[in-house]
Amino acid sequence: IGEVFGTFFLVLAAAGAPIVDGVSHGGIGHSAAVVAPALTVAAIILAIGTVSGAHLNPVVTISFWLRKEFPANRIPGYFVAQAVGGVLASMLLRYLFGTSHGYGSTLPMHGLGDWKAFIVESVLTCGLVSTILGTASGAQNVGPLSAFAVAGYIALAGLWASPITGASMNPVRSLSPDVAGGGYAHLTVYLAGPLAGSVVAVAFAFVFRGRGGDPYAARAAQGLLSNLADSDIADHGEEAPARAGDASDSKPGDAVAKKQKGPKHRHPHA
Fold first, then answer.
1. Does the CA dihedral 52-76-64-37 come out positive or negative?
2. Is 207 helix (H, G, I), strand (E, B) or coil?
3. Between 60 and which of 14, 55, 153, 268 could a Cys-Cys bridge form, CB atoms 3.0 to 4.6 Å apart?
4. CA-CA distance, 193 to 32, in Å (whole number)?
5. CB 5 within 8 Å of CB 85
């Protein structure tokens, strides 16, 4: 449900912005049209990140799986939820605005060609997935700030690349308007490009941070920040992060007292 909810609002903003800009004769503008989905992503990550991980994108789900931080048996459910959310958003936009601005579809710039569009989408998605994997890592430990890092990347990528390919970086974002409109021109670019870019990003993550399996990233990816067993982290030799409410359950001086008490010393012959 979380992925349906989140992807619905992402596609509503991403596909809806160019549609509304068209029907309002430039009332939104290019900059606002690319910032709108970025801010939506930030809000959704903060709102439902602990529910589903707020992937909102099939290639993000695949990337976490490749990093051994997301279980394979949950992938089909995430794909279906993301597709349902995206298509529902596009169908709503079609009902509200008809065929205006091609249902908000992403298309390569005239004369660019599918191969070059594929390269652009691959490169953009590599940067996006690298940002997501990096900020989810326990080594970074940025917490809620990851939402703004991801949103910032989406906005920056859109500012320079949206006139070229639409800066989709998300197969569901591109597929949903095509389903609503019944036309699938250039769709292969927006399915294969992000997938290729995500695989490259996972390869870079291997170079930067090893084979994966980071328990903190797994908690972020699976939306189990307060439910995943602490033993999963202990197995990796790491201390479990404090949960919300732990601080309120302890007295202000407890931490200082524990620090002053220090470790218990055993008799050398014990």
1. negative
2. helix
3. 55
4. 25
5. yes
Query: How large is the C-alpha radius of gyration of the chain?
Result: 21
d(CA 107, CA 61): 24
Band of the pLDDT at 49, cuts 50, 70, 90?
confident
- Residue in the structure block whose two tokens are 């490009």: 193
Contact between 183 and 174 (Cβ < 8 Å)? no
**In sequence order, what are the residues at sequence separation of 6 or more whose Cβ sits closer than 8 angstroms to the Cβ of residue 180?**
87, 90, 91, 93, 94, 103
**Closest to 67 (Cα-Cα) out of 172, 137, 159, 142:** 137
Distance CA 177, CA 106 (A): 8
Question: To which residue do tokens 């940002």 refer?
Answer: 131
The residue type found at 125 is T
Query: What's 29's DSSP letter?
Result: -
d(Cα 106, Cα 88) in Å, to the nearest integer? 17
CA distances from 67 to 29, 140, 221, 222 (A): 38, 16, 10, 13
Mean pLDDT of 160-184: 93
Instruction: Say yes or no to pLDDT of 164 above 90.
Output: yes
Single pTM value for the model: 0.80
Question: In 10 A of CB 50, how many CB atoms?
Answer: 19
Q: Give one word for 240, left, alpha or beta, with left for phi > 0 and alpha for psi -120 to 50.
A: beta
Residue 199 CA to residue 183 CA, distance in Å, equals 27
pLDDT at residue 27, rounded to an integer: 86
Helices of type H across 24-170: 30-52, 58-66, 75-97, 114-136, 145-165
| Burial zone of 39 (CB within 10 Å; 0-12 exposed, 13-18 middle, 19+ buried) | middle
Per the structure block, which two tokens stand in for 263?
A: 């470790």
